[in-house]
Amino acid sequence: MNDVVLEVEHLVKRYGDGPVVVDDVSFRVRRGRTTALVGESGAGKSTIGGIVTGLQTATSGRVAVCGEDRTRVARSARERRRRGAQLQLVPQDPATTLDRSQRIGDALAEAVALGGTPRTDRLPRVEELATQVGLGPTHLELTPRSLSGGQRQRVAIARALATSPEVIVLDEAVSALDVSVQAQVLNVLNALQRDLGTAYLFITHDLAVVRQVAHDVVVLRHGRVVEHGAVEQVLGDPQDDYTRLLLDSTPRPGWRPVALV
Amino acid sequence: MTVLPFTAARRLTRSRTRRTGLGVSGWAAVVVLVLVAAAAVLAPLIAPYDPNTGDLLHPYATPSADHWLGTDGTGRDVFSRLVYGARTSLLGPAAVVLAALLLGVPLALVSAWRGGRTRIVLGSVLDVMFAIPGLLLAILAVAMFGPGLGAAVIALAIAYLPYVARLATTAAEGERRLPYVQALSVQGHGALRVNVRHVLRNLSPVLVGQASVAFAYALIDLASLSFLGLAVQAPQADWGVLASDKDALLKGHPLGVASASVLIVVTVLSLFVLGSRVSGEDRR
């Protein structure tokens, strides 16, 4: 199974003596494909994202990126950089996803330098990254304050791409954007995946977004996987009552609110 | 890191900074502080007389063309003493604030980054230090090491450390939780780089604001210690020493005392105004 870039096996997370927030979760993300983690607030989506990115530790279970075990914390700068070259993160909030006092060009150059790009090749690489996400040279001179929410998320995506990672974790990365900007960013992500073969772990509560970008979907409820499979199968013919409830709670013409229980 | 060329966009950013800048009161404070600092640096060029050489034949001379603010009880030129006094009056608080920042900010960054037990232990140490009044510590230090600016500065730096560290910790914890810090960590940057290049830079307005306020308090505390005869010692010129000239007051010559007091008040006020403008406190 060489095309598996992210493997999560029997993941459990419990905070102290509190309830189990992630309970025996397992799934795989394959190269060039998008797996969506969906569920209501508190389902454990972002906790799984935090563990996968190394920002949190699991109580038990295993996370492997490109076959390399990530259960323990990185011990050296070299290991940190190698992990960064394999997996990257695009956070949710466009307002705080970038360092507010750093110019866009400098933020991208910093990420490029981390990937080991020689000094002389960094500026062309920064411009290439900006172009890939639909930004121009003028944007490189600006600070995040001068950019719109959609532009900031594009920068965050470009920054994540700087190390040419195998997989990018997008934690509600388009949830804070309005619909038209959301579509633009999703188109950018689709195009990049087509061109670069990057895999995405898409954490979202928006099933419309899942239909648009994901190949596979993992439905979570109270930290447990209730359904897992191809998007067409899970969203087209849901086998679990909770998945059906989630689908029924998605607004559409003539829709009436459905309480999730 | 690659340095990108400046363009019109950067000018745009700069003009925005100007619009949300110091304001009239902030700039007035800057002018006052620059004048005081210039007086301290250029004292030998500005002061018409040696601050410590007196003319015993003309004690308590009234203001004249020769002595703009008159002379003190030993015939020393009050204006010259005020100008030279700016040196110790600024140097002492600067040393206090610098030492408190150099110790307090790294502690704050470590506490915010590590969290957990590190935060609890460091927080407890700071709580203990909070319980010791600065002036009491300074008096204790003077009793142990003898009167002088050095002992007072060290004692006040220790006393100011928990205030600086506690504020910096709170600000650093807020910054630490921001998604960009998490993204940088995932990217592969080490804690040192993230803290120094990003977190510290974004904390700088808060720290500069805090430093200016701490500077003002340190100036008052050192002036008080000089007034009590525990810090700067007569005949060395210092605003605190000048403000404590009881003989001049009793003999009806308050100009020197009043001038030193006004300088202390104006400088402290300017620092408060600048601190609040820089940290954005008065715009929230």
UniProtKB/TrEMBL annotation, chain A:
Coiled-coil regions, chain positions: none
Q: Does the keyword Nucleotide-binding apply?
A: yes
Molecular functions per Gene Ontology: ATP binding
Q: Where is the ABC transporter domain?
A: 6-247
rRNA-binding as UniProt keyword: no
InterPro entries (alphabetical): AAA+_ATPase, ABC_transp_ATP-bind, ABC_transporter-like_ATP-bd, ABC_transporter-like_CS, P-loop_NTPase
Q: Which UniProt keywords apply?
A: ATP-binding, Nucleotide-binding, Transport
Name the domain of life: Bacteria
Family the entry assigns: Belongs to the ABC transporter superfamily.
Which protein, by its recorded name, is this?
A: ATP-binding cassette domain-containing protein
Q: Which organism is it from?
A: Nocardioides mangrovi
UniProtKB/TrEMBL annotation, chain B:
Task: Give its localization.
Answer: Cell membrane
Q: What topology does the record note for this protein and the membrane?
A: Multi-pass membrane protein
- A Pfam short name: BPD_transp_1
Q: Transmembrane segments in this chain: where?
A: 21-47, 90-113, 120-143, 149-168, 207-232, 252-274
Q: Where is the ABC transmembrane type-1 domain?
A: 86-275
UniProt xrefs under CDD domains? TM_PBP2
Which keywords are on file for this protein? Cell membrane, Membrane, Transmembrane, Transmembrane helix, Transport
Q: Could you say which protein family the record assigns here?
A: Belongs to the binding-protein-dependent transport system permease family.
Return the protein name. ABC transporter permease
**Source organism (scientific name):** Nocardioides mangrovi
